[in-house]
Design brief:
The structure holds two protein chains of two kinds.
Chain A lengths: L3 E16 L6 E16 L3 E5 L6 H8 L7 E6 L3 E2 L5 H7 L3 E4 L13 H12 L5 H14 L16 H13 L5 E5 L7 H18 L2 E6 L2 H7 L2 E6 L2 E7 H6 L4 H9 L5 H6 L30 H5 L5 E4 L2 E3 L28
Chain B lengths: L2 E14 L2 E14 L3 E5 L6 H8 L7 E9 L2 E2 L5 H7 L4 E4 L3 H4 L6 H13 L3 H14 L5 H4 L9 H13 L5 E5 L7 H17 L3 E6 L2 H7 L2 E6 L2 E7 H6 L4 H8 L40 H5 L5 E2 L9 E2 L29 H6 L1
Parallel strand pairs in B: 3-8, 3-9, 6-7, 7-8
Antiparallel strand pairs in B: 1-2, 1-4, 4-5, 9-10, 10-12, 11-12
Helix pairs in contact in B: 4-5, 5-7
Classes of the chains: A alpha/beta, B alpha/beta.
């Protein structure tokens, strides 16, 4: 369990955006992912949370090199640099790294049968496999993800959203990858179907010893599936820690606000809880604030935050925070400025 | 308590090339003054179409049967011209997608004053003043500047505030919010929910909150109606529904939600199967194919809403043949249930402590 599968070092994805005139305009970088570092262990699920525009999807794709990173390293199993791979070597690596997309129907080719869709990775990576063997594997996989194997010749439009997501998952899993990036896999699904897909992903993970990067904006789902959680804001890591540490004792004011903002399906709790409501909206990633990117909405912001960007530092074992004024909030989530020492933290199981 | 809206046996049908779709299949309920009613359901449950029908906003291939009375005046079948004197003034709607619901080529000020000039006969200048007041009420920063902006110049959360402001212009009696926070980020959603809670305190309007998010309902609503397959499965006050759900669907929905306050990483209860096909609804209970407690009676006979026997307080109703979820075996008609039917996870008790 403790072997490192993936290490991401200072990954950056900057998109050049043309500003100004058509002819004399300049290109200005949009920093979608700006210096993200983390590691993913074998069999682990790392939840990546953040609001829209925080760069969580771009990060997932840059790791798989579906989007070319501008700078930084992605290291596979401690030795091989994915960011340095070219051509055939990169192609071969893709068998180990797969992705499940958010929109279940749009990510399936409408003119291919389900069997062809799920079997396509096999035709690409094992072209010599006999047709019968491939079909048997596809049927096996279909049964595993909860689809009836006799539906192999149907087309995507004949399936519901939840079933289409099962097809997408089957396609990602058929090569027995070591890592799967799940990019909002349940956000497009109904509540009652979400639970089915979450259970399926967790079962497959236990079965195949997979590592998952679970990208989502839904903090309740992330808490359920993840071992560790990383919080992003405007392309930067705000906080990364074990799941319980993030949810029970978050140290970053953004994480604290994010968690308190999630509506809980419990009337007594919901009507009495003190919500930390952040003012304003996400700043434009084209023109991020100086210093700490969160300072424009942060209840603890000071002059220091405008001058100096905080670095991601370990404040408790395995708990890294990027904040000058980190700490657990005072009573009633008042967010008093009271940084705590590591020894004061509640012990986490 | 006076009812603002009385709906009786309302049905919505759509004729499509593939046959008739039964979106809403006979629902009856009242909305009282000043209360906040939550309509909960998944996509295709008919929750939005029910209120589109009330507002006379169905697509062209849709038709409404039954009755929906606003303070005694029948809205179903009312000529559009007459309906327009109610819509936007007495009954107002907040839509989910603020980008497509606002007119992209008109400035915010123009869109807002139009409502007041039309319904209240105000002068342009008065209307502008009122629009400004309302924008300030929904806490839009630099409200005066916003009046001259176009919808695309505002952020998603800001546009949703404009939508809410527009619905409040004529001080409506009934405010229908159709998934008002679904398209928004968590922190912005929190801002809008806080605003809605304030509105509930400030205005006398009855609020209908249509959503699939149980958390939002728990925070805002007084009463909840759970829809499935175009029917009400269970209705009751918010504490009854969340702490003592008596319909297998309500219970399943609540159990299948991962909770923020939960620290176990165990299997979620999942309602098996798929939502029903509204073109071919089964005879009997619409939930029968996915229900853990299904028996012969459910297949043969449509359960009607009836009072729940072991409810805390009065007013809780369910459309289910089962006597009780906790002791389903007490029900004599359950004898025919296959022995291998998996027991459902019932977590009504620990929902309290969560």
């Amino acid at each position: 369990m403790t072997t490192e599968l993936l290490r991401v070092e200072d990954l950056r994805v900057h998109f050049p955006i043309r500003t100004g005139g058509l002819v004399f305009g300049k290109y200005q970088p949009l920093k979608a992912v700006d210096g993200v570092s983390f590691e993913l262990k074998q069999g682990e699920t790392l939840g990546i949370v953040g609001e829209s525009g925080c760069g969580k999807s771009t990060l997932g794709r840059a790791i798989l090199r579906l989007i070319e990173p501008t700078d930084g390293k992605v290291v596979w199993l401690g030795k091989e640099e994915i960011t340095g791979l070219k051509g055939e070597a990169l192609r071969a690596k893709r068998a180990d790294m797969q992705i499940v997309f958010q929109d279940p129907l749009a990510s399936l080719n409408p003119r291919m049968t389900v069997g062809d869709i799920i079997g396509e990775p096999l035709t690409v990576f094992q072209p010599n496999m006999p047709k019968d063997a491939r079909k048997a594997l596809v049927k096996d996989m279909m049964a595993k993800v909860g689809l009836l194997p006799q539906m192999i010749n149907r087309y995507p439009h004949e399936f519901s959203g939840g079933q289409c997501q099962r097809i997408g998952i089957a396609r990602a899993m058929i090569l027995k990858p070591k890592m799967v990036v799940c990019d909002e896999p349940v956000s497009a699904l109904d509540v009652s179907i979400q639970a089915q897909i979450v259970n399926l992903l967790m079962d497959l993970q236990a079965d195949m010893g997979l590592s998952l990067l679970f990208i989502s904006h839904d903090l309740s789902v992330v808490r359920h599936v993840s071992h560790r959680v990383m919080v992003l804001y405007l392309g930067k890591v705000m906080e990364i820690a074990d799941r319980d540490a993030i949810y029970v004792a978050p140290l970053h004011p953004y994480t604290q606000a994010l968690i308190s903002a999630v509506p809980v399906p419990d009337p007594d709790v919901e009507k009495s809880k003190a919500r930390i409501v952040l003012g304003g909206d996400l700043p434009s990633p084209m023109n991020p604030p100086s210093g700490c990117v969160f300072r424009t909405r942060c209840p603890r912001a000071t002059d220091l935050c405008a001058r100096e960007a905080p670095t991601l530092e370990e404040k408790a074992p395995g708990h890294r925070v990027a904040c000058h004024h980190w700490g657990v909030p005072g009573k009633g989530h008042g967010l008093e400025n009271d940084p705590v020492q590591p020894g004061m933290l509640p012990t986490l199981g | 308590m006076t009812a603002v809206l009385e709906v009786r046996d309302l049905k919505v049908r759509f004729s499509t090339p593939d046959g008739e779709v039964s979106a809403v299949n006979g629902v009856s309920f009242d909305i009282n003054e000043g209360e906040c009613l939550g309509i909960v359901g998944e996509s295709g449950s008919g929750k939005s179409q029910l209120f589109m029908a009330v507002m006379g906003l169905l697509a062209r291939n849709g038709r409404t049967e039954g009755s929906a009375k606003y303070r005694g005046t029948e809205l179903v079948g009312m000529p559009v011209k007459e309906l327009n004197t109610y819509r936007g003034s007495k009954l107002a709607m907040i839509f989910q997608d603020s980008m497509t619901s606002l007119t992209p080529h008109l400035r915010i000020g123009k869109q807002m004053t139009e409502v007041l000039i039309q319904h209240k006969g105000m002068s342009e200048a008065d209307a502008r003043g009122k629009a400004l007041d309302i924008l300030e009420l929904v806490r839009i920063p630099e409200a005066a500047r916003r009046l001259n902006q176009y919808p695309h110049e505002l952020s998603g959360g800001m546009r949703q505030r404009v939508m809410i402001a527009m619905s409040l212009l004529c001080e409506p009696d009934l405010l229908i919010a159709d998934e008002p926070t679904t398209a928004l980020d968590v922190t912005v959603q929190a801002q809008i929910l806080e605003l809605m809670a304030d509105l509930k305190r400030v205005t006398r309007a009855a609020i209908v909150l249509i959503t699939h998010e149980l958390g939002t309902v728990a925070g805002l609503c007084d009463r909840v109606q759970v829809m499935y397959g175009g029917r009400f499965m269970e209705t009751g006050d918010v504490r009854q529904i969340f702490y003592n759900p008596q319909h297998p669907y309500t219970n399943g929905l609540l159990s299948s939600m991962p909770r923020l306050t939960e620290d176990r990483r165990e299997k979620l209860y999942a309602i098996p199967g798929q939502p029903p096909n509204l073109q071919r609804l089964p005879a009997g209970c619409p939930f029968q194919e996915r229900c853990d407690f299904v028996h012969e009676r459910c297949v043969a006979e449509l359960p009607l809403l009836r009072p729940v026997t072991n409810a805390a307080g009065t007013g809780q109703m369910k459309a289910c043949h089962l006597e009780s979820l906790q002791h389903p075996v007490d029900d004599p008609s359950r004898a025919s249930i296959p022995a291998d039917a998996a027991p459902p996870v019932i977590r009504t008790s620990d929902a309290r402590t969560a």
